[in-house]
User: What shape does this take?
Amino acid sequence: FFTGAPCQAWSQAGLKHGLEDNLHRGVVIFHSVEYVRCKRPRLVIIENVMGLASGENRKVLDDILGALRDLGYTAEWKVLNTKDHGIPHSRHRLYIVAIRTRFLAKSIEFPTKLGKTAPLSRFIDMDDCRPASERPTN
Assistant: This one.
């Protein structure tokens, strides 16, 4: 399950009202936690802005992590910058990764920086033996 709730309530560029956001955007992330409670997916990834990890918002992040752990997940978080992972745009994003503990084979590890020299071919399946006309184009 992958989700990204509206970020305006947590964003440095927004009003930073968090759970008190008058359009109720701040509470949407808890609907994702409720979905996890009902469906129990093996893997959960929640993406949002890094503002969710700073100041008074940090308590909300801790509440989310606690709720996931109470549901039987091992949960970790980290802020990653997209430019460090092959995307030509500098954008800090917070990622929460939660895996149902009974399916966890090893500790959760976040990716390391790719560096500026990582070729796009690193992400392309070069061993595709299908004729060119049958290979995916994107």
Notes: DSSP finds two helices and four strands in the chain.
